[in-house]
Design goal:
The chain is mainly alpha-helical. It has helices at about 5-30, 35-40, 45-50, 60-80, 85-100, 115-130, 140-145, 145-150, 155-160, and strands spanning about 100-105, 105, 110-115. It has nine helices and three strands, in the order H-H-H-H-H-E-E-E-H-H-H-H. It has a three-stranded antiparallel beta sheet with strand order 1-2-3. Strand 1 (about 100-105) and strand 2 (about 105) form a beta hairpin. Helix 4 (about 60-80) packs across helix 5 (about 85-100) and helix 5 (about 85-100) packs antiparallel against helix 6 (about 115-130). It is globular, with a radius of gyration of 17 Å.
Length: about 160
């Protein structure tokens, strides 16, 4: 079903759209003044979990990982290399953001009841894993054929 001529371009467009989401976020974070502190301090439903992370030095470390995580996930999705691995990290980030935006049962605003864009993004990233999206106009197809990749179980898994 995923090899349909109609589905393949949609998978590529979804992958590139998700790459844009992560790269755009990274552009503000990597190249600007960015800290997770304000965001984490303003959480509501899971404040007990996120607020302690807003204090330095943990906030500085988390800010670095969030900014460069967005950049690496975006580059991976853009190039189609190690899409399986980057999608897993992307799903984890989206679920954390969903939790952090929650004011149960609403997410961010009263117009989002339990589901918002973070859940939709996580589902799209799950689709990237299920459809082997990096093999469709991506570098995973090329990398998976390399002997060096087959000899390393982690790289073999990441490009599968």
């Amino acid at each position: 079903m995923f090899d349909s001529p109609a589905v393949r371009p949609l998978i590529v467009l979804l992958r590139l759209s998700m790459a844009w989401v992560f790269l755009y976020a990274a552009s503000h974070q990597v190249f600007g003044e960015f800290s997770v502190s304000g965001f984490l301090e303003s959480t509501k439903t899971f404040h007990w979990l996120f607020a302690p992370m807003a204090a330095d030095p943990l906030a500085s470390v988390l800010s670095f990982f969030v900014a460069y995580g967005h950049l690496l996930i975006g580059l991976s999705l853009l190039s189609g290399l190690m899409v399986r691995l980057s999608s897993i990290f992307g799903i984890a980030l989206m679920l954390f953001y969903w939790m952090a935006h929650m004011d149960f049962p609403y997410i961010s605003a009263t117009t989002n009841f339990l589901v918002d864009e973070h859940i939709v993004y996580a589902l799209v990233l799950g689709l990237m894993i299920a459809t082997r999206a990096g093999h469709i106009v991506g570098l995973d197809d090329w990398a998976a054929k390399l002997e060096q990749v087959h000899r390393n179980k982690w790289l073999d898994w990441a490009t599968a």
